[in-house]
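hey team, just a heads up i'm posting the complex here instead of the shared drive bc the drive is being weird again. everything in one block, sequence lines first with there labels, then the predicted structure for the whole assembly after. its two chains so it's a bit long, scroll down
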Amino acid sequence: MLSVRSATSALLLRTGTQIATVRAVPRVRSSPIRPCGSPPIRALSLSGCLCKKNKRSAWLEMTGGQNMDGSIEEVLAPLRLAVKEQGDLVRNLKAENAPEVDVNKAVAELKARKRILEAKELALQPKDDIVDRTKMEDTLKRRFFYDQAFAIYGGVSGLYDFGPVGCALKNNILQVWRQHFIQEEQILEIDCTMLTPEPVLKTSGHVDKFADYMVKDVKNGECFRADHLLKAHLQKLMSDKKCTAEKKTEMEGVITQMDNYTQQELADLFVQYNVKSPSTGNDLTPPISFNLMFQTSIGPGGNMQGYLRPETAQGIFLNFKRLLEFNQGKLPFAAAQIGNSFRNEISPRSGLIRVREFTMAEIEHFVDPNEKVHSKFSNVADLEIMLYSSKAQTSGQSAQIMRLGDAVEQGIINNSVLGYFIGRIYLYLIKVGVAKDKLRFRQHMDNEMAHYACDCWDAETKTSYGWIEIVGCADRSCYDLLCHARATKVPLVAEKPLKEPISFNFEANKGAIGKAYKKDAKLAMEYLAICDECYITEQEKLLNENGEFTIETEGKTFKLTKDMVNVKRFQKTLHVEEVVPNVIEPSFGIGRIMYSIFEHTFRIREGDERPTLPL
Amino acid sequence: MLSVRSATSALLLRTGTQIATVRAVPRVRSSPIRPCGSPPIRALSLSGCLCKKNKRSAWLEMTGGQNMDGSIEEVLAPLRLAVKEQGDLVRNLKAENAPEVDVNKAVAELKARKRILEAKELALQPKDDIVDRTKMEDTLKRRFFYDQAFAIYGGVSGLYDFGPVGCALKNNILQVWRQHFIQEEQILEIDCTMLTPEPVLKTSGHVDKFADYMVKDVKNGECFRADHLLKAHLQKLMSDKKCTAEKKTEMEGVITQMDNYTQQELADLFVQYNVKSPSTGNDLTPPISFNLMFQTSIGPGGNMQGYLRPETAQGIFLNFKRLLEFNQGKLPFAAAQIGNSFRNEISPRSGLIRVREFTMAEIEHFVDPNEKVHSKFSNVADLEIMLYSSKAQTSGQSAQIMRLGDAVEQGIINNSVLGYFIGRIYLYLIKVGVAKDKLRFRQHMDNEMAHYACDCWDAETKTSYGWIEIVGCADRSCYDLLCHARATKVPLVAEKPLKEPISFNFEANKGAIGKAYKKDAKLAMEYLAICDECYITEQEKLLNENGEFTIETEGKTFKLTKDMVNVKRFQKTLHVEEVVPNVIEPSFGIGRIMYSIFEHTFRIREGDERPTLPL
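-- predicted structure starts here --
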């Protein structure tokens, strides 16, 4: 069983970022749990590695960094250096066990530098590579791929209906998913309820920690997400010509640290910068924590609090015992679920990217922690995939195309199970229509990963919103099963037959000994049967060196040769060990995959303003 | 546009029954709207038509009533007669416009007699035809077809998870549904959100009327469905040996009238029979109305009340305009949706039959009310299906196998669109594994149908719970579109090009007239061009009788023969009429279909207690 460094705090350490396009992944485990009051440690991921003037050179750059456009790299060089210097500083501070406050400060600065580099990279990318989002969305809505739900009642933000074409596309995407994963990998698909009683989500940490800070207009009650509003307010102040350079620097510092503020610190900043409601100019309440789950009451009594699930994964963990039994008690095995999840966003924006109800497809691959090796990894080892490792990110480097096998061998990807799923996810996304040159896998940095996770990679696509996370793939160790087992006192473990160390004894050739010693043979046989291993080892050495050894028993001497006796090695299965499986979790946001496909396939005919979607 | 007899009251008139197996249909339109305080008028449907000793004779009976087991029919004959007599009485009262109270009383008695007949029929059926439910459910759970959700947390009643085999079966059932309906009928599939803002469900009537009465234990707050509890209490009293015959008759009367009581009457009965909590013996609160929708709050402000949808249909109605546009403005067309709906049952029982979260598949077929004819009806007209018409039910007769074409021709089924869907539903259910001899279509009786619906048939399967509704198929007229149009002021109509009545004029043969009258021909032509239809009719008659007619113009006479002139009939499209389409709604409860398949395919090997499911 893998140890969990700190089960109680482990869950608190995943956090969203302040960039909508990253945080808004329809429930990918790496982002939903945003701690209130605990220091958020997740970095942004808006960086781009495609900074070339045309696709050809972008491709060349991706395939190894050759033929880069010199002038662009010239602009980026100092920014890359700044990230690298800060990355080195963070590493040194950690190595020296520097005070946490110093490390956090340095990490925040590292993130800020990364963000500036990434923004510059995106700004320098060729303009013709960016889709005209307004035109695209207009086309999609006109042809009823999707549209706002309840439109004739005024609509509800964050809720969308898929029309006939969108629905057909979604069905196809899910059908391919089932073929590619469930069928090819022989995964156990299950179908759990969305209604979830409170104790389950209390255990998972969602009741306490799945929240964002918000402020309210004191008069009309309009709500705003605190970090979004503060950032927009500061940007407005900074754009004022009268704003001094000194003030600007100060405010830039606040934006940089946005993820790190406690509830009280945020409250103070709202006072300090005199933030009012942007719609009415009214005063605002201090920031309060708002849980992002939809609450309801199950049954008529009003005493069974429930929520709409924020992810499908919990249903799989709760059914672990039944699934293990279904798999005849053996590890590894995987279970999966396709279904809707819900997130009560404070102010949903960004169309299909940030919604309140969304379809997910999640796999939980349960594996013996001591055998984290995938037997089929060789099938994907030769794939060349754009990887943006943690190290590259903290060194100011670009994402690089790498052979998957090399990435696992070099330890960039923690183990071959994770590596296998990264390969399979890649193949799936290409199959359903994501553009190969707009897809990368970004590794979470140390400071954005939960304690219990040992490695985590997000599949990200490049869109007009920047790089957005569409699939998460995390090694979550044994955290979830352990939490539920503790809460319910039901052991969620697999039994693993334990083998005794290899042992050995004499194997006598009854015929040969009998032939040599006739009726005394029995004595020699009895003697050989009860030797201890130390003695056997010594005699084996003699047997190998001299071809014989001698024993004495009941006053008689026997010379035993190689044809009469040899040493047999064997192993016995004697005990059973309980093992809490580790979990590798690929988690797909179907709406975001669809959106990526829209952007990657939308074209406007040359010299023709009529847009077309080749679907 | 069809008139709606009473739009405000129409919705209130569908109600559930007191039998779990009927009411619990996972949202089939015909049952969910249970009015509080309004007289429920839906009959029970536990009747069975299979009262034979073996399948062979059951089949013969179904195929026309021959070869019936005489002794059983002897037992049933007086019961059938009793139903028929009461049915005649109800018809007479209605014909005489008798006071409503008298009609209601007679209808209640009719229902009671029907129920007794049905119970007897079921009791007389061969025992080997009934599945051993305990064994079957044990097998299904052991093999993880499905099991209670959140079991390691103690479970939540009415919530089930489907395991690998159940989930695969469900996927297959849905996949066949898509092929059979969406693809073969070219239906527009859409995918709407489950979260629904309150105004939508206020309009549809669910906020006010989708409720059951419940009573609460005054001390521990435990809740009971009022009608279920009262019935169980009375049955217990009646089973007491000391209970007088007089008392028994009285209580039987109460059970018979159960669906008809108002909130106050129910309250009085609870006092009169001194009903206490069956678990604790504590006092109970008076019956209160409990809305069956799960309530939640959308967005952070707490001011947008929302619910989890109780049916998928509303999403289709709200998207009507977009769908019509998608179909290029033309009727008829159909839209469909597959997805989960929710119903917060007071005390869910009966396993998969009555659950709080369930998957539905609904079709809304929009059709011009003046053209309720299905072009493909002939494809299904020759199907022989067991139909249990309203008339048969009120006459004490059995269900009868009928040719679908005959049922439509004879007006038993209202129109060929409804008939077509009944045929298609039948074919679908047989295809996925429902037993042909345990499937019937039962027509709603006048007094269980909403005012706005002109015909409604339920597909029912025979199970160990009796006959249960698994698909509803209703002609809902224009009710839903009209409600939403009124509430939103958005016209939900289709435009229908109007044709002028057939009109006619002279068609002159310019060449022939020119040849005959040279330069004067022009005069004749001008004259012919401006004749009124009355004059044309007269001259046409002459032309047909004499082969010629004569005209005079500008002092000149022209004799016109058949080769010079004829009368041309034509039609012009001049205006556009707005039409509110009617809706035919087949509505499938997927969980109930699955459950029926389980019962219809479960076998225990002869001489072997090990059960098998041939799936």
